[in-house]
Design goal:
By secondary structure, the chain is an alpha+beta fold. The protein folds into five domains: 121 residues, Sandwich (Immunoglobulin-like); 184 residues, Sandwich (Jelly Rolls); 291 residues, Glycosidases (TIM Barrel, Alpha-Beta Barrel), CATH 3.20.20.80; 90 residues, Immunoglobulins (Immunoglobulin-like, Sandwich); 79 residues, Immunoglobulin-like. It is built from 19 helices and 46 strands. Helix 5 packs parallel to helix 6, helix 7 runs parallel beside helix 10 and helix 15 packs parallel to helix 16. The protein is globular, with a radius of gyration of 29 Å. It is an enzyme of class 3 (hydrolase).
Length: 841
């Protein structure tokens, strides 16, 4: 391999081209049922199929099944996952100048056999891999028939489970026995679809001599300079001498590949670079790396064979896990700057993930930005998301944390599963390595915790469980293919030796990352304040979807929290019991469904606000909060901030407030109260902090003012004197802390135990560009005022929610809507909601 470097290449004559011919095979497929419990109307049908797609969506489009998301259709459609399916396509082909012709499947779900003209050409066992098959032995001039036959995923998982041996998991299907999206078999928020289908694009590729197999640029930073090591893999069909050229920002270099060589490393060095920063910390400059593959020939013009491009950014990532007096921190450090993670967990945005396109990714990421989120964790029971997701995160400075796809289960390490898991890891780490937004690869979700503390060891009886992946295979692959991305063996995870070697058990609050789930499952949300974690990677509280989503997906009459369709759309174990138990300390349980819906939505928002404000008040001791979860995959009662139809729940506004750059929060400290001021912005913050103890009429009963000064990225705690911090009548008093218009509140009693009156509100509606402006003035103390815009316009949005007003104060809600709305509709008591209505209905 010979290397040539040219900082300022001459303008040579362009070479002749012989690029691969890439032809989409996405059109004109059909699908038919084979073996399984198939209804009569489907058994003989040849159904038009969309690729990318799935059997469910094809049947739905053909009018042969009802919408799986509605009512109890999930159970009615369980037969689909028990059935084998065959996709068929006929395409024309004529021999040309190319010597190679291959079919490329970007995603097959999941156990599939591929045939061309009746002859086997390949088999697949993994939804998370890309496959390429040579068609030459069976391809013929004229028409060719390509078929993909999928085995029932339910039966395939059951059979694989028997072959590998039982290993613990948390589902009614052994999802850990095959390499399929785990939540396709259902989850405690997810519908059981057990899908089959060609879920990512299919391409026919014809080429000669050589083509680019993969491009993996790795950017590293040295002071103000940057180096890009461009790793290029080449597929060959000849022994010709090849040139691999790479360029970025006016710098180029070339590597010569002699006969038989298929890998090239092209190094590009830039003397000056601009660093890529997370959102809120700086800009996101990106650099386009162009790669060209050329054939050279003695005495003849060169021929350009293939091109590819990748976009990179320059940044450094470190994890600070150096033990300190309080245990072991877990701090993500970008470009030398510690970042407090204001995060949210991500699940597949649709139970049929082929329906998620770039526009939908952008919608979710913009909602995350609205909520002041700076990191999205892609959870390990889903998928490696499409390139569009990571590209958008690169462009917008949204940090990403990618789990390897092993979740809440023990996994066999022997073949064939072990080979598949390693192959998919190499495939996807290589694909994602260049994205500057990707800062964490994480070995698994809760599997180390389960092995150590969920009685798995006894049930495994000596069988492998996945430790080899987390401590050996995955870190080796990341070090090889993405050395500039951080790696953790699992979440939760305690840094240092493994538990077997004397290390701390996972989920230790004093060491590394933890998940907090006894809150919600057993304990009430004020108890979040009893934890002093170093980093919280999961915690959450349930709430229903928005009203319009709930009522459009459930047709029960009467609709109640426990009516049949509602229970189908509540997947958590004793979910409604936990909703009730978690509400009663704060508000009475309403008997009417509209009020129940509002109460549970508000309680979810308040629970998470309580948690996040507490975690942020602990920084720098605690340096991360990743709420479960940002989004949903279908209309369901869940922990999400955005429901399955993409509508924001009150929780999204709670996140916006609790994750704001500048936060003023009142917290219990040392038997009293303190105001904690958090400045997570890039600018200093200073001014008089005023804390007033008020009556519910707005009368100042006591007041304390103190000058505070906060540097950028800092926290200050201000203990309060007893005259302010102690109430004389808990039912009628509250605290308000204010610094430069940023406010925090503390109520001395739960809402149900206060003298909170029925809402007394004046409203005014003005038409503005793009919608409306609703001004609301309170005549009594009003807690958590919210405009539930989806009740009058399901497509509408509002800019604020969960506002607390003293008598005489006003709030302005800006509504974006194309609908014709009026003041009567927007100020209706079921639309303009507050906590007051739950205490004094």
């Amino acid at each position: 391999m010979t290397i040539h470097i040219d900082q300022n290449p001459p303008a040579n004559q362009a070479p002749a081209t012989a690029h691969p011919i890439r032809r989409s095979l996405g059109a004109d497929w059909s699908v038919a049922a084979l073996d399984g419990p198939v209804p009569r109307e489907v058994r003989q049908a040849v159904i038009p199929a969309t690729v990318p797609g799935s059997v469910h969506t094809d049947l739905l489009a053909a009018g042969l099944i009802p919408d799986p998301y509605l009512d109890d259709n999930e159970n009615l459609l369980a037969w689909i996952g028990l059935t084998d399916w065959r996709y068929t396509k006929t395409f024309a082909w004529q021999p040309g100048g190319s010597t190679q012709t291959e079919v490329v499947f970007d995603g097959l779900d999941t156990i599939a056999s591929i045939e061309l003209n009746g002859h086997p050409i390949g088999e697949t066992r993994n939804m998370h891999r890309r496959y390429r098959f040579d068609l030459r032995p069976r391809l013929k001039a004229g028409l060719n028939e390509l078929t993909v036959t999928f085995r029932s995923p339910v039966r395939a998982a059951d059979a694989a489970s028997l072959h590998l041996g039982y290993r613990p998991h948390v589902n009614h299907h052994p999802y850990n026995a095959i390499r399929k999206m785990a939540c396709s078999f259902g989850w405690d928020w997810g519908i059981d679809t057990s899908t089959s289908g060609i879920w990512r694009p299919v391409t026919l590729e014809s080429w000669s001599v050589a083509r680019i197999e993969s491009v993996r640029p790795i950017a590293t930073v040295t002071e103000n300079a940057g180096t890009i090591d461009v790793h290029v893999e080449v597929a060959r069909a000849s022994d010709a001498t090849l040139l691999v050229a790479a360029s970025v920002a006016g710098v180029s270099a070339t590597v010569e590949l002699a006969a038989g060589e298929t890998t090239a490393l092209v190094r590009l060095e830039l003397q000056e670079i601009s660093l890529w920063w997370p959102r809120g910390y700086g800009e996101q400059p990106l650099y386009d790396v162009a790669v060209t593959l050329t054939r050279t020939a003695d005495g003849a013009a060169s021929t350009e064979l293939d091109t590819a491009s990748k976009r990179i950014g320059f940044r450094t990532v470190e994890f600070n896990t150096t033990p300190d007096d309080d245990g072991t921190p877990f701090t993500i450090v970008i470009n030398g700057m510690p970042v407090f993670v204001r995060g949210a967990n991500w699940i597949p945005d649709d139970a049929f993930p082929h329906r998620v396109n770039r526009a939908r990714y952008l919608d979710r990421i913009e909602q995350a930005e609205f909520a002041n989120i700076n990191l999205i964790r892609v959870w390990g029971g889903g998928i490696f998301e499409a390139d569009d997701f990571y590209e958008l995160c690169d462009e917008r400075g949204m940090l990403t944390w990618q789990d390897f796809l092993l979740a809440c289960a023990a996994y066999a390490e022997e073949p064939p599963l072990g080979d598949e898991i390693e192959a998919e890891a190499r495939d996807n780490v290589g694909r994602l390595a260049s994205h500057p937004s990707l800062v964490v690869f994480n070995g698994n979700n809760e599997n180390i915790w389960g092995h150590e503390e969920w009685n798995w060891k006894k049930r495994l009886d000596g069988k492998t469980w996945g430790g080899g992946y987390y401590y050996e295979v995955f870190p080796r692959i990341v070090a090889e293919l993405a050395p500039q991305v951080g790696y953790t063996p699992g979440s939760p995870f305690s840094p240092g030796p493994t538990p077997e070697n004397g290390g701390h058990t996972p989920n230790d609050p004093e060491h590394g990352t933890m998940h907090i789930w006894d809150l919600w499952n057993q304990r009430d949300y004020p108890d979040y304040r009893e934890y002093t974690p170093r980093f919280v990677a999961e915690f959450g509280w349930q709430g229903p979807p928005t009203w319009s989503t709930m009522t459009s997906s459930i047709g029960d009459s009467p609709l109640t929290p426990e009516s049949p369709g509602m229970l189908v759309h509540q997947k958590a174990m004793e979910g409604n019991v936990k909703l009730t138990d978690g509400l009663l300390a704060h508000y009475p349980l309403p008997n009417e469904i509209d009020a129940w819906h509002w109460a549970m939505s508000l309680n979810q928002a308040n629970a998470i606000s309580t948690a996040i404000e507490h975690f942020r008040s602990l920084q720098p001791h605690c340096m991360g909060s990743i709420v479960w979860q940002l989004n949903d995959c279908w209309p369901v009662t869940s922990w999400a901030a955005v429901d399955g139809y993409g509508r924001p729940k009150p929780l999204l506004y709670a996140l916006r407030n609790a994750y704001a750059d500048r936060l003023v929060t009142v917290q219990p400290r040392d038997g009293g109260l303190a105001v904690v001021v958090v400045n997570d912005s890039a600018e200093p913050w200073a001014g008089p902090l005023t804390v007033a103890r008020l009556s519910d009429t707005g009368t100042v009963l006591a007041e304390h003012t103190e000058q505070v000064t906060l540097p950028a990225r800092s926290t200050v705690t201000v203990p309060l004197p007893a005259s302010v911090a102690r109430s004389t009548d808990a039912a009628t008093e509250l605290l308000r802390a204010d610094l430069a218009g940023v406010r925090g509140h503390w109520f001395f009693a739960e809402a149900r135990d206060t003298r909170l009156g029925a809402p007394a509100l004046d409203t005014r509606l003005d038409r503005v560009e793009g919608g409306y402006r609703l001004t609301v003035t309170a005549h009594t103390l009003t807690r958590d005022l919210a405009l539930l815009i989806d009740k009058v316009d399901p497509a509408g949005t509002v800019d604020d929610m969960l506002v607390t007003l003293l008598p005489g104060e006003s709030a302005v809600f800006t509504v974006t809507s194309a609908a014709e709305l009026d003041l009567t509709a927007l100020s209706a008591p079921t639309v303009l909601r507050s906590g007051n209505q739950l205490v004094r209905p």
